[in-house]
Amino acid sequence: MGGKTIATAWLGFAVIMALGLPQASAARPYRAPRDAYGAPDFNGVWNNNALTRLQRAPGLVPLVVRPAEAAEAERKLMAAYAPEGTSANVGGTQSEWWDGAHLARVDGELRTSWLVDPDSGQLPYTAEGKRRAATFARAQLASFDGPEARPVAGDRCLLPSWGAMGPVMLNSPYNANYRFVQTRDQIAIMAENNDELRIIRIGAAHLPAQIRPWTGDSIGRWEKDTLVVETTNLRADAPLSQAPFFFTPGARVVERFTRVSPTALKYEFTVEDPNIFARPWRAEMAFVATNTPLYEFACHEGNYAMTNVLAGARAVERTHAAAPASAHD
Question: What is the greatest pairwise CA distance in the chain?
């Protein structure tokens, strides 16, 4: 056999072996480190800050954009969140409080919304659901009778704003850090936004239906390396401030947390609420590991904003009461 023939034979043998043997870089699934009890270890601080939001902004049709399209997509997102010339929300647009952010990467893709189902990137409200959402929003924002009538997050500081704690745990443009502390029977999640604490009880049964904590009743179980959390007993009077939806009695949320790399946590959630949605909807989000400490979030129920909002409403009422009758016509 000539040298060329021998070389060809060896080349063919090498190709066959390469096809038949697993590659060193093949998708060996990432295996998360274990905690002291043998469960995947989520302990630490995670951050979900991004320009990406739950629903797709107007003009952003695709769920996934190419890297070359990212800058234009981010420009459109910023224009949607902070329109030029907006003055109604003082300090709320293009503010020094906002952390710098870009489109989020989920499964290696640049995403323009967390929503992946429906394909439209919009919440699947029924007509009645849209009506109830609009009515609820007006009632929260237009009533100045007393502190109990004001939004529970932005004004009363009873919950994080932007729906940061949830469930579901949406991203805020600032203070988007979360500390996870894990034991055998519980996982505690502390949100930096308003210092809210949520406790997930592993392997427990749900509380009686009449007990409804601010963040609902969350119980968890392990499915291999994924923490699956089911939340019920959600409060209809605790809307997610500045988030695009709220819950009604009977709503159910299922969340899935999976460590997919040393620095990434994939967060998936499905919401079922047949009172306002035509069908369940599903979303995916990325959390990134960080060494940033959690700082105090100086918001409390007796804050100056509440006093000023109500004092301003009383001043407007006095002005109207003192005006001539013809002025009200």
Answer: 113
Task: Name the token pair of 164.
Answer: 């940061």
DSSP secondary-structure letter at 153? T
Q: What is the SS3 assignment for 289?
A: strand
Q: What is the Cα Rg of the chain in Å? A: 25
Phi-psi map region of 271: left, alpha, beta (phi>0 left; psi -120 to 50 alpha): beta
CA distance 170 to 167: 8
Residue 39 makes CB contacts below 8 A (sequence gap 6+) with 182, 184, 222
Residue 42, both tokens: 């989520």
63 touches 307 (CB < 8 A)? no
**Distance between CA atoms of residues 55 and 53, nearest Å:** 6
Q: Which residue carries 């239906």 as its tokens?
A: 209
User: Using an 8 Å Cβ cutoff, are 201 and 221 in contact?
Assistant: no
How would you label 263-293 residue by residue, b for 16+ Cβ within 10 Å and e otherwise? ebbbbbbebebeebbeeebebbbbbbeeeee
pLDDT digits (tens, 9 = 90+) for 34-66: 999 999 999 999 999 999 999 998 888 899 999
Amino acid at 125: Y
Between CA 324 and CA 327 the distance in angstroms is 5
Q: Which 8-state DSSP code applies to residue 81? A: H
pLDDT at residue 233 is higher than 90:
yes
Amino acid in the structure at residue 164: A
Distance, first Cα to last Cα, the chain: 108
Please give the pLDDT value at position 153.
82
CB atoms within 10 A of CB 142: 8
Domains of the chain: 44-48+123-305 (2.40.128.20)
Q: Which residues are CB-neighbours of 173 under 8 A, at least 6 positions away?
A: 49, 81, 97, 98, 99, 101, 162
Cβ-proximal residues to 303 (8 Å cutoff; 6+ apart), any chain: 157
Cα–Cα dist 138/142, whole Å = 6
Question: 250 near 87, Cβ under 8 Å?
Answer: no
Q: Among 67-71, 74-78, 269-273, which is the least confidently predicted range?
A: 74-78
